[in-house]
Write a structure and sequence with these properties.
Its EC number is 4.3.2.10. Keywords: Amino-acid biosynthesis, Cytoplasm, Histidine biosynthesis, Lyase. This is Imidazole glycerol phosphate synthase subunit HisF. Heterodimer of HisH and HisF. GO terms for molecular function: imidazoleglycerol-phosphate synthase activity; lyase activity. This protein has 263 residues and is of the alpha/beta class. It has a single domain, classed as Aldolase class I (TIM Barrel). Helix content is 36%, strand content 27%. It has 11 helices and 12 strands. It has an 8-stranded parallel β-barrel, surrounded by 7 helices. β8 and β9 form a beta hairpin.
Amino acid sequence: MLTKRIIPCLDVKNGRTVKGINFKELKDAGDPAEMALAYMNEGADEIVFLDISASNERRKTMSQWVERAAERIFIPFTVGGGISSVEEAKFIISLGADKISLNTSAVKDPNLIKECSDLLGSQAVVLAVDAAFNQEKKRYEVFVQGGTTPTDLDAINWIKKGVSMGCGEILLTSIDRDGTQQGYDLRLINEAANAVQVPIIASGGAGSKEDFLYAIQAGADGVLAASVFHYGQINIKELKKYLKSKGIPIREEDLYEFPNRKG
């Protein structure tokens, strides 16, 4: 059985890690590269860097983050935000990222997923899907531009399309739960996991160790969080011990401090 992954997410705006509630009321949470190094030493399986302002401000992902992360950590990391062409994606990978994440640009041009997959391999292409439940239509709807703009796209259908175009992983964020610490949206996770065969990374709503467990039981292959890690509410090593005690397969060779990549 494949091990489940614990993934801290570093939302970055103007070169600093930030965190808010429902994608709003953003507060400074620290330096991205230093936080990534600390999380690696704590036992994180991967790191995700997301420039939450890049698409909205139409600017490219800052390459400095990628270079600094590549210098300091050697666990896999993903970079997303503002990647709007296959050339940009290739550049980010060349700087040391293991994966790129597409969101707004992929909705605008779904063929970008295929182009990136053809060039980099499906394992390097993550489709980030920000979804909120539409009460009127009784379905999950895709939002873009940092979760600010509705698209009227059915989230599950979009996930299926993204996989058919070549993405190797889905980063699925519940806008309704983001930053609330009220638990992941288990229905959303389950619907996505049942719809496609690629890994589902659940995001949005973690507030307790039990929340991570429930998300995995709902079908998540990885569980991503920010607030509970950034503010020291949950320690990754302790979380992994808890999940192991519940029968969840996890990577165990993380219980010691790593040197950095250039060490």
